[in-house]
Design brief:
By secondary structure, the chain is an alpha/beta fold. It is built from 10 helices and 7 strands. The protein folds into 2 domains: about 120 residues, 3-Layer(aba) Sandwich (Rossmann fold), CATH 3.40.50.2300; about 80 residues, Winged helix-like DNA-binding domain superfamily/Winged helix DNA-binding domain (Arc Repressor Mutant, subunit A).
Amino acid sequence: MSGAAIRVLLVDDHAVMRAGFRMILESQDDIVIVGEAADGATAVEAASALRPDVICMDVQMPGIDGLEATRLIAANPHIDAAVVIVTTFDRDDYLFQALAAGASGFLLKNAGPEELVTAVRVAAAGDALLAPEVTRRVIERFTAAGTWTGPVAVERGGAAVGLASDLTERESEVLRLVAQAMSNAEIAGQLYIGEATVKTHVSNVLQKLGARDRVAAVVYAHRHGLV
């Protein structure tokens, strides 16, 4: 996004929670709430109709829960929204199911107001959202299991969509730093290049690997021994 306000859809079955999120986010000049939903089915419909940039999604809701709603939204080619799971429960099963469903991030409801604002901005920019410790949990799960069934879109019908060999030397370097849970700003400082240049390299990496997001790229890098 450039210049336009970040359009946010709030999804939570508790009206008080939605009101709290709305108050926090609408206090920011660059964020506008375009709608609310109290369940997953309504969230999917609202995402299609309102075209938000970011969806703050609860997990436990009546009917279609937040994880299934996220899967439906991520699978819809006409919806281009980043989903941030915002939940009370710091549970690994929720974390990994959310990422596998297509969520761009995972935030706990006890996070501070500034963390919620940052999460929305980061998700809207397509930048890294998971904190380093959460990224490590993803990597540890992959390492322990030896396989990954999460958010890596590098195989379709048994054929590889993208390979690390398709990357330039600089793109490979950026991928290795992304896999170390470094932000664009940190990568820029490490490589002595501008943040805009880093964003371009990251976008190229994701496109060439067929990876949906940075979390997918992290898992790909570890899966293929690039870090």
